[in-house]
Amino acid sequence: MRKDPNKQPLVVPGRISIARYQNADEGDLAIHVELTDDVSRTIVASFAMRLADFAKAVTGQGELHGELTIYVGAPWGKQHETKTMPVQVPKHNEYHLQPDGRGRDRAKWEADLTAALRIHERDGWQANRRDAENWHNCLRFSDGRLFHGHEDRPFDQERYARPGDDREYYLVHFHRHVEKGAPDEVRDPASAE
């Protein structure tokens, strides 16, 4: 394979993880090697191989075969950012029985939940949808303040609730990957010369 002189490699801090499946048979691809980009916290590539081949590799034998997976669409070199915020979600009990009389209208609730999360999914932010469905993340409104679950840890964000407010809020985690080529984190190998 010829190297393209117009494409420079991206050099970022990373880590390697080597794991072995405990219950794998002798012929299975029991060893898994993963390369992770520390800036974006995403897996760049993984390699699976047999245990016997891995033993040969670490004792000095050259090329060995296995299965290489390259995650082409991964946001390599981009900074991973997270935030957590209260999000008003549709109440389950407001979704009446389906027309046939069976259960609540889950499809309508799902559509309204998607719309509620989409309001906050701007500038590349993506919501962890499971947070909005997990009652452990539910916020309750009491004495003019929002509380997380059964804890007495109030949220002082008055913009989210008002006295007498009976809306349902959940703590939802959001994440995104952004270009933040800090010199100490991402460097161009051509500039090091």
Write the layout of secondary structure elements.
Elements: E1 14-20, E2 31-37, E3 42-49, H1 51-58, E4 67-70, E5 79-89, H2 106-118, E6 126-127, E7 138-142, E8 145-148, E9 154-155, E10 168-178
Antiparallel strand pairs: 1-2, 2-3, 3-4, 5-10, 6-10, 7-8, 7-10, 8-9
Task: Write up this protein.
- The protein has 193 residues and is mainly beta.
- It folds into 2 domains: 57 residues, no CATH class; 100 residues, no CATH class.
- The chain is built from 2 helices and 10 strands; from the N terminus they run E-E-E-H-E-E-H-E-E-E-E-E.
- Strands 5, 6, 7, 8, 9 and 10 form a 6-stranded antiparallel beta sheet that branches.
- The longest helix is centred in the middle third of the chain and has 13 residues.
- The protein is elongated and about 65 Å long.
Briefly summarize what is shown.
This protein is mainly beta and 193 residues long. The protein contains 2 helices and 10 strands, in the order βββαββαβββββ. The longest helix has 13 residues, at 106-118.
Largest sheet: 6 strands, antiparallel
Q: Mean pLDDT, rounded to whole units?
A: 76
Write the element-wise H/E pattern from the N-terminal end onward: EEEHEEHEEEEE
Helix content: 10-25%
Count of DSSP H/I helices = 2
- Strand content is 25-35%
The geometry reads as: elongated
Write down how many β-strands occur, each being a DSSP E stretch of 2 or more residues: 10
Low-confidence stretches: 182-193
Indicate the structural class: mainly beta
Q: How far is the first residue's CA from the last residue's CA?
A: 24 Å
Domains counted in the coordinates: how many? Answer: 2
As a whole number of angstroms, the C-alpha radius of gyration is 24 Å
